[in-house]
């Protein structure tokens, strides 16, 4: 489920720092969050998860995962390839990140996505919800925690 607002990342605008803008109809864009990513010799590749909760940034031959809610770096996967990363994309469910380089495609689990989903559901539980929504949110949190336990997290 995509948010009602549109998020634009500063990389697309030629800005060296990741700026997140929120655009609502009739309003001028304004900065919501700024942050820094690890500088590298090559231009970074970006992939935004379908639910817009995780931003993956390529840094030479590694991938950094950022939580878009607070802009925090969640994790870094180093040495995905011996060369640079050519392209990245999340699958439609947002559970996997496909990373292309060295004439191969590697598939990474979006572990950060499970943590961001838990955080999103917990924030929603703090607001007034129907009993059915509360049950659905609690089930989602439980399923994410079970999946994270399988990864040893």
Question: What does the model show?
Answer:
- Helices cover 23% and strands 33% of the residues.
- It is α+β, with helices and mostly antiparallel strands.
- The protein has a domain at 6-110: 7 Propeller (Methylamine Dehydrogenase, Chain H).
- The strands form 3 sheets. Strands 4-5-6-7 form a 4-stranded antiparallel beta sheet. Strands 1-2-3 form a 3-stranded antiparallel beta sheet, with no helix packed on it. Strands 8-9-10 form a 3-stranded antiparallel beta sheet, with no helix packed on it.
- A hairpin with a 5-residue loop joins strand 8 (87-90) and strand 9.
- Helix 1 packs antiparallel against helix 2 (131-150).
- The model is unreliable at 1-21 (pLDDT under 50).
- Enumerate the spans where pLDDT stays under 50 for 5 or more consecutive residues: 1-21
Q: Percentage of helical residues?
A: 10-25%
**What is the ordering of alpha helices and beta strands?**
EEEEEEEEEEHH
Radius of gyration: 17 Å
**Quick check: average pLDDT?**
81
Query: Which architecture of one domain would the CATH scheme give at its second level?
Result: 7 Propeller
By CATH, the superfamily of one domain comes out as YVTN repeat-like/Quinoprotein amine dehydrogenase
Question: Strand tally, please?
Answer: 10
* CATH topological fold name of one domain: Methylamine Dehydrogenase, Chain H
- Helical segment tally? 2
The SS-based structural class is alpha+beta
Q: Provide the β-strand percentage band.
A: 25-35%
CATH C-level of one domain: Mainly Beta
Provide the spatial order of strands within the biggest beta sheet. Answer: 4-5-6-7
Outline: globular
């Amino acid at each position: 489920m995509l948010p009602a607002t549109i998020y634009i990342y500063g990389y697309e605008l030629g800005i060296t720092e990741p700026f997140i803008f929120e655009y609502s109809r009739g309003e001028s864009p304004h900065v919501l969050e700024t942050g820094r990513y690890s500088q590298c010799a090559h231009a970074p590749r970006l992939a935004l998860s379908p639910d817009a909760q995780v931003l993956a940034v390529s840094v030479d031959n590694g991938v950094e995962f950022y939580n878009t809610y607070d802009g925090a770096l969640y994790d870094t996967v180093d040495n995905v390839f011996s060369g640079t990363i050519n392209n990245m994309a999340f699958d439609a469910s947002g559970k996997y990140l496909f990373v292309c380089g060295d004439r191969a495609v590697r598939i990474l689990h979006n572990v950060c996505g499970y943590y961001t989903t838990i955080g999103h559901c917990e924030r929603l539980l703090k607001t007034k919800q129907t009993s059915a929504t509360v049950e659905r949110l609690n089930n989602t949190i439980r399923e994410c925690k079970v999946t994270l336990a399988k990864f040893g997290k």
